[in-house]
Amino acid sequence: MDVRRRSEKPVYPSKVFAADEKPLKPHKNQQQEDNNTLLIDASDALPLPLYLTNGLFFTMFFSVMYFLLSRWREKIRNSTPLHVVTLSELGAIVSLIASVIYLLGFFGIGFVQTFVSRGNNDSWDVEDENDEEFLLKEDSRCGPATTLGCAIPAPPARKIAPMAPPQPPMSMVEKPVPLITPASSEEDEEIIKSVVQGKIPSYSLESKLGDCKRAASIRKEVMQRITGKSLEGLPLEGFNYESILGQCCEMPIGYVQIPVGIAGPLLLNGKEFSVPMATTEGCLVASTNRGCKAIYASGGATCILLRDGMTRAPCVRFGTAKRAAELKFFVEDPIKFETLASVFNQSSRFARLQRIQCAIAGKNLYMRFVCSTGDAMGMNMVSKGVQNVLDYLQNEYPDMDVIGISGNFCSDKKPAAVNWIEGRGKSVVCEATITEDVVKKVLKTEVAALVELNMLKNLTGSAMAGALGGFNAHASNIVSALFIATGQDPAQNIESSHCITMMEAVNDGKDLHISVTMPSIEVGTVGGGTQLASQSACLNLLGVKGANREAPGSNARLLATVVAGSVLAGELSLMSAISAGQLVNSHMKYNRSITKASS
After folding, report:
1. How many CB atoms neighbour CB 13 within 10 A?
2. Local structure of 361: helix, strand or coil
3. Among this protein's residues, is 589 annotated catalytic?
């Protein structure tokens, strides 16, 4: 029972009731209605519609304020006392007061009503249903309850409805309800509870249990209970969690499914390739496949590897710019370079230092090491070699302060002009000549239209946008799909997608020459995600799985040419679709679900 402070009114009414008559209680909202009758609706000030009344008083308020401010400004300029008021000013002040009263009434009426309502609702009375019971129990100490000496029979017993539990305010953040899936064993249930309570760190489950899959299962259930969000759609079965331990992913709770499509055959350097593409963008595989068909029908594409060298650029600092320049001359000296290369190459049997490119900013020196890394993408390999060289240089230059092994002059996972100009990873150019007949029948467009579109879109349009390495239609689409399918680092799609697409009419304007130049394709066939089962299968499909023992590095270089050839096919098909006005229609056909659920 909700008992509140008793009212100041007498507990017992002055009226004497008959034995079978019950005292009447005022309606709950009676006092509220009485108070509301005291409030005058501001909109009743004039017998006009509400919007006209509001507009009239708003106009009057601002007009009078403008008039009075103008008059007061003139008085100040003329040194006239402000308290000297003319008849017109007096009328304006009266009008201002009237409009202010109206506006206060219009905007304040809701507040006043709310205030009065709160005052009534917060009256310190006994709840209605328990009123009589409370009063009788209170006075039972003094015997039967009486009113002016007249006995009042006890009220008949009534069933008191149970009170509903108090509801939390709407503004409170509701804590998510834990989702609990029964554990496979009591032991797992205890581990789950310990992780939820913070007694066992989630990251230590693999080492404590010795079972990576079981650890992932427990961690997934922990996340459901902590967040209250279901992870039912995230698969757990069918994956080898031991293969990613300490290499690919920490604290796994499942894996994401991405469909893999096949484009091709891509005829490249006289050899056919079936290109695996992992993507969720409809029409991408189909478009690349059409480009492969056009290239195949025209005799294939040719790809040439220009450079092969991964980079890492530490930043070191000296007390003066002179000392920084001295180290720059030291590492660029051909004789000294041989010594540094020997120190660098000791870090790996595949790492071979090619050159060091230096840049100075004040007393800070950036040294960009370039080296070959075999069939690995090579970031870890080059970092180890750089650390060896820094340790050696520290002995020669004890005042050298190593700020960081990576000073962003590399430059990794960021668009940078140094990669666009100097290259990083594999630098490749790929070309093909598409016959007039294929352009018309397969690509459904004209050679002249493609050449003009490429100039205005890929070259001029990209220059207008201030593009850095983005002089192409959609190279990153194909690079990303191939990177995910073959276990490459998806973040390196940024610099790997640097590409300039060129188109030119040849053979008296009948045929189309198309080329893509990509200076920084960063790929490998060993290490990282390449050893996972699905990605390894895609590499095997291309014939570049693992390391090439006979010619180290040849598998990674071949994979880079496949990437460039696939980009060539994708550029050719998309540019043809735009030229022929088919882009929207093709996406409506292939990039929309046909299931009833999506319609």
Report:
1. 12
2. strand
3. no
